[in-house]
Design a protein that fits this description.
The structure is a single chain. This protein is 73% helix and 0% strand.
């Protein structure tokens, strides 16, 4: 029989999983960008003494390594928190300032004063 789950709330990925996910995404983006810029460079300046495939693969691999490194670090830094995201969202909602509730007459007076200020501002711009 499987163990009983301790919590019914979904758990997010671990730091290691986030790191791997960022690295894989960065690798895909880097390979694509490397292919685009490497092809453009080869079309413009030629393949060079190493040949087409070696030059293109160097562009693609160096770009993939760079993007993987930075996206892996960024995905961990962005989501590295002490409390779970659902608790963080609840905390932010509790800190939100309360909306002041006004009566109809107060709202009408506020709207009337804003219209008057806007009318004066337009009148001054015409002069």
């Amino acid at each position: 029989m499987p163990p009983v789950p301790t919590s019914h709330l979904p758990e997010g990925p671990s730091v290691w999983q986030k790191l791997k996910m960022g690295a894989v995404m960065g690798g895909g983006v880097g390979l694509t960008i490397g292919f685009i810029f490497g092809s453009w460079s080869i079309i413009r300046g030629g393949a060079g003494p190493r040949g087409f495939l070696a030059t293109l693969s160097q562009y693609m691999l160096s770009s993939a390594a760079t993007f993987s490194f930075f996206l892996a670090i960024g995905s961990v830094i962005r989501s590295d928190t002490l409390i779970p995201p659902y608790l963080q969202a609840a905390h932010m909602q509790m800190l939100a300032p309360a909306v002041s509730i006004r009566s109809k007459s107060e709202g009408f007076q506020l709207m009337k004063s804003r219209w008057e200020a806007e009318r004066l501002r337009h009148a001054q711009q015409r002069e």
